[in-house]
Amino acid sequence: MIVTPELRPAQIGRASGDFYTIATLGSHSALQILKGAHDEGFRTLAITNRKTERLYRSFPFVDEVIAIAEYKDFMGLVPELEKRKLIIVPHGSFVAYLSLEEHKKMRIPYFGNKAVLDWEASRELQRQWLTRAGLTVPRQFKTGAEIDRPVIVKLYGALGGKGYMFVRDSKDFEERAGLLTRNKHILQEYIIGVPLYIHYFYSPLTGRLEIMSMDRRYETNVDSLGRIPAAAQENLDIEPSYVVVGNQPVSLRESMLAEAYQMGENVVRVSKEICGAKGLFGAFSIETIITPDAQFYVMEISARIVAGTNLFIDGSPYSYLYYTEPMSTGRRIAREIKNALLSNSLDVVLDDSSVV
Amino acid sequence: MIVTPELRPAQIGRASGDFYTIATLGSHSALQILKGAHDEGFRTLAITNRKTERLYRSFPFVDEVIAIAEYKDFMGLVPELEKRKLIIVPHGSFVAYLSLEEHKKMRIPYFGNKAVLDWEASRELQRQWLTRAGLTVPRQFKTGAEIDRPVIVKLYGALGGKGYMFVRDSKDFEERAGLLTRNKHILQEYIIGVPLYIHYFYSPLTGRLEIMSMDRRYETNVDSLGRIPAAAQENLDIEPSYVVVGNQPVSLRESMLAEAYQMGENVVRVSKEICGAKGLFGAFSIETIITPDAQFYVMEISARIVAGTNLFIDGSPYSYLYYTEPMSTGRRIAREIKNALLSNSLDVVLDDSSVV
Amino acid sequence: MIVTPELRPAQIGRASGDFYTIATLGSHSALQILKGAHDEGFRTLAITNRKTERLYRSFPFVDEVIAIAEYKDFMGLVPELEKRKLIIVPHGSFVAYLSLEEHKKMRIPYFGNKAVLDWEASRELQRQWLTRAGLTVPRQFKTGAEIDRPVIVKLYGALGGKGYMFVRDSKDFEERAGLLTRNKHILQEYIIGVPLYIHYFYSPLTGRLEIMSMDRRYETNVDSLGRIPAAAQENLDIEPSYVVVGNQPVSLRESMLAEAYQMGENVVRVSKEICGAKGLFGAFSIETIITPDAQFYVMEISARIVAGTNLFIDGSPYSYLYYTEPMSTGRRIAREIKNALLSNSLDVVLDDSSVV
């Protein structure tokens, strides 16, 4: 059913207007998505705001830019986009700027399964999903009084680590609980170990799972605290923060790779039980912390392309095991859409709400 | 003093002697500069010392090696080099070993604008430049008594972070001020956040600015302090040091990329007002610290290729957005010189002191 | 004597069964070894256990998988493997699962020199080797009473940093010495500085040493301690551990590269004096810590491919200086075997125990 990569849409077809356009918001991982789409032969469209417009226009692989005042105005653009022959590839900024309802209302062809959004957006449901897949998750506390070890307080919907709070013990929590009353939050056991984010791609066309790359986040200010001698820190009384401003590459000990692969497979398997037959497909990421007994604790799952893949726009040590071209996760998505088109099975890679 | 150069078998077409030779000091980022020059079709010359001679001779892309006793003897070689058809690509070691006056006295074709050196060498002028470009710089203190927060003491002309000193408060400063009396220094607010070095290339031929890559420095001992438990650190009474011995790759959150790009453009724009019409061109780097409110604090600007680009001799995720070949910053420089030659505008990429 | 890379075993020869198979255990750095072997035209065999079997079968460059119950059962497979036309490329898991005696008993063609194993396995002999090569090694203490600074206690044969123990002073040592009685260990001065692992390849065919890549290990929990504010650490009373679960890329300041290269050459030179005429060849790694005076302290030598090279399956900034293809260390090994075959000197790259 799947054609080989050699059968690509001819470049001459580009001008005809008959080819699909891959569109995304100008943020998060848009550059690799659009570069990848271009490299696979698609037309590309970046929907930007006034501040990012210039940046995206400066890249030759961006065929078209539509600038809107603010990303949250995106829904106003939907009627126009629905008339065009395009496919949306969502990333983290979609989840940040569009509500679940808005997501589901859209009829634009959409790469991925929107049903997964419900299971991802709720921290409770997500926990059920991960646990059912046999993954180890950190302990969770219901009230401050229960806390018997350091915890990290995560606000619902907190993005890019903003609003995370490190709490030493229940007394510390009590003193600062006032900061939290406005927002729903969870109290998660603080796991001491090194973070690792594993980037997967599951192909619904071939049924194969691939490990595309890995990273760790680059967070301000926690990733700079260690540079300040302990004695000096005490005078400074620094509050740790976890705002993600970048990413750093990591490779995983090969003897742990089989388990990492298995975790990805389990998550996909369970998703087919809980999110409809299509389940989770395309790019996703499992965010882990590895403890000294080489145990993966799973903090979170992201059901689409994550920003850590931006390190690997020119391919990764892992992607190179599967592909001879520089295969970013963004390009892998475009490759999947192309393979779907070439095998006349576009519906397999799109959400069921899509009107093609 | 000068060792007879070992002329390597030249490739067909190359032997005519009509081609330009790209020359640089065997240090800092010479490998990527010479490899890049070779890949763009130039002849290459490494000027080394006795200790580094063997290393540079071992690479097939180095056509010629001239070994001198010490790098600071470079000026003795200038008359000989002025007779040849070559172009110097400077890097950090030029600034370290040659004075401003020596720089300006040379008539060898020189990639870059020497007028920028004055604005870069003076910490005061550099600060004016950055501020005028709208960048946020850390607070600076004139005297120890003024200090009301941790500061980092930077000696004038300190290279590779050597001689930087972390000072907790004005009392701490007083106690250790004796260490500083010999040298001119500045007292810079210690910004708590994660470092990010952004590598740019501005083409005077096309007027386009490119983000080539990014890194963070690998500094001993501060980047190892965090591995020592706080309790153990106290017994050790460790003095933090900031000696740069390497670099690590980082990617930036894409939503902050437009601002990073804008910072580069602003710095170039202002340079044209203060350093003559040519302004700053070629490779440069802005050294930032990113705070938890996602604010870039600019510590310093380097007006030429920086060592962090050595991570990307085979290209970077960013360079791959513009180029299909592995485009290091060193190769990008050679590409610009080649493009200048091909468009008969070599003077555009050379300092005005160059006698072609 | 050595043929150019263009002369490769023809792909059509693959089916004949006359080509050598490159075999290794499915762990550590097997993916790059087998991918590299495939890219150089060899057949490939992964010997896995039940848990890793699926992972290795999922890669198209793995031609054959033999699954055994446990890696330590490998010797049971040897009679079967000895009948085949294959070459074993060893990595760290061989040393972990097979004794020295088992290593030496094998007659399967084996890439590398087994005589090096004795000098590597004994921490005393290894120290002699490094010292004789002029490298700076950390101070070592014979008894707990001697300790006058922080030390790291390393168990004999400790793998992947497991069982390492940080000890502050002789009192701390006394209190915890009970944990150590069962196992032989050394007390090594704790050097404060940044770790750097340098990956070399020495070709016995050409006599050339190459720097292939560099990394730093990613260790749990020490590489996460710095993210916990000093004040919070005190409450937690965390015991540092050094279990290696991954690697991160680093580049070295170019002015220190000549010394790094020289260290590699010295180690090879001395190995020819102590381990027979063949000495150390193929891949090896020197594990250093760099102090603020830019001094390399050498912690250990690994006499074969190290896991840090897994970051560079698609090549490294250093390998790209020598090779235009993505040259992993695994592929470099296969290239050497191929060059040996093509120049009819296979014995040069195999241990003398090999029966070809």
Q: Roughly what percent helix of chain A?
A: 25-40%
Q: Enumerate how many helices of chain A there are, as a single number.
A: 13
- For the biggest β-sheet of chain A, the strand order reads 11-10-9-13-14
Low-confidence regions of chain A: 1-16
Major beta sheet summary of chain A: 5 strands, antiparallel
Strand fraction of chain A equals 15-25%
User: What is the H/E string of chain A?
Assistant: EHEHEHEHHHHEEEHEEEHHEEHEEHH
- The radius of gyration over CA of chain A amounts to 21 Å
Name the pair of protein chains with the most residues at their interface, and give those residue counts.
Answer: A-B, 50 and 51 residues
The whole-number mean of residue pLDDT values of chain A reads: 92
General shape of chain A:
globular
Distance between the termini of chain A: 20 Å
Count of extended strands of chain A: 14
Helix-strand makeup class of chain A: alpha+beta
**What oligomeric state best describes the polypeptide chains here?**
homotrimer
